[in-house]
Amino acid sequence: MPKTAVVALGGNVLTLEGQSGTYVEQELNALHMAETVCSLRDAGWNVVLVHGNGPQVGNLAIQQEQGEPLVPQQPLFCLGSMTQGQIGSILTLALRRVGGSRIPDVASLVTHVVVEADDPAMDRPTKPIGPFFDADQATLLANQRGWSVAEDAGRGYRRVVPSPEPTRIVEAGVIKTLVDSGVIVVAAGGGGVPVVRQDKGYTGVDAVIDKDYAAQQLATALKADALVLVTGVERVLLDFGTPQQRPVREMTAEEAERHLGDGQFPEGSMGPKVRAALRFIRNGGEAAVITTPRLVQASLDAEAKADADVGTRIVTSRTQVGATR
Ligand SMILES: Nc1ncnc2c1ncn2[C@@H]1O[C@H](COP(=O)(O)OP(=O)(O)O)[C@@H](O)[C@H]1O
Ligand SMILES: NC(=O)OP(=O)(O)O
User: Which InterPro entries does the entry mention (predicted)?
Assistant: First the structure.
């Protein structure tokens, strides 16, 4: 029975820092990610890809604003579904191009994720979307357009929107059926389209769910063997951004919890990744990995030698002596 990895891919991996988000940029960046997924397939893993959409959904929201009054704006949750189509298509094309006959079918699934209507996060915008601005531009845009803006992990200012906790993946059952039959599935993109339960069915709410938390929910629901959080840094760093910063090769759940409690990982960047990894382990998962596309394969190798070039592994119990550096 092949193992299953749920791989979360940051929106910032598709639109790199300094890029504006053209189609060609995203297409090229997706090819790198496709190489990683194809190597995982070659190593016998079933793969579910959960992509971010922060840069893309924010760009789309600006395009919507510019379109007024010629065409009506669509709600934010609906823009989330549009980015699932956009990025799902880019990833599918990249996988087919890189994988050719090596890979089976690829399916990108519009996915809805249930949130609670009374989640306090709905009144507290925290999720950065769209382009980066300097402080003056951000203040101007906030005044002109009624945006909430905030500083994003030392990289500049961005629009921020509510980001409630995902509680259930509506399409988890069909995703499992596809994965079990060997299909590479792109699902819960952008954290999923946020919906709340109604008497009959669901209705969308204006928010952007954190894709790392949605990926964890999905990984737990699928009883996946690994949760892989792909981002722009090879390893999680302790004392990030200080002269004392140092990489972590392996953290037990207890250590991850302690470092989170000590405020080592900022909300809106590394915090959700470490918390998602921790939740996966606490809900029965074996190992979670945080790294760049280049090191995914090696990082999933639990037997990797102590000096191997790997990312950060979050595990139930220590596998390597002296692995936390
Ligand atoms: N403790 C830390 N260790 C490593 N990177 C950190 C840490 N704290 C903040 N970061 C920053 O967080 C970024 C990852 O978060 P983000 O860019 O939001 O992720 P995503 O790839 O999902 O878009 C890293 O590239 C790094 O700049
Ligand atoms: N939805 C989401 O978490 O997107 P990013 O990973 O791009 O921030």
Answer: AceGlu_kinase-like_sf (IPR036393), Asp/Glu/Uridylate_kinase (IPR001048), Carb_kinase (IPR003964)
* 204 among known catalytic residues: no
223 is catalytic: no
Q: Using one digit for the tens of pLDDT, what is the confidence trace for 140-163?
A: 999 999 999 999 878 899 999 999
Quick check: 53 and 87 in contact, CB under 8 A? yes
Taking CA atoms only, the protein residue closest to ligand 2 atom 1 is 190
Element (H, E) at 261: helix 253-261
Give residue for tokens 């101007």: 140
Burial classification of residue 286, based on how many CB atoms lie within 10 Å of its CB (0-12 exposed, 13-18 middle, 19 or more buried): middle
The structure's pTM equals: 0.95
Measuring CA to CA, which residue among 83, 237, 107, 109 is closest to residue 170? 109
Active site includes 273? yes
The domain 3-114+169-315 is placed in CATH, from the list 3.30.420.10, 1.10.3720.10, 3.90.1150.10, 3.40.1160.10, at 3.40.1160.10
Averaged confidence pLDDT in the chain: 93
Mean pLDDT of 282-292: 95
Angle at 12 between CA 125 and CA 35, to 5 degrees: 145
Determine phi and psi for 123, rounding to 5 degrees. Answer: -100, 5
Q: How many CA atoms lie within 13 A of 168 on its CB side?
A: 9
Instruction: Give residue 321's pLDDT.
Output: 47
ipTM over 0.95 threshold? yes
Q: What is the DSSP letter of 294?
A: G
Q: Is 52 in the pocket of ligand 2 (CB under 6 A)?
A: yes
* Catalytic hit among 10, 88, 211, 311: 211
The residues spanned by each domain of the chain are: 3-114+169-315
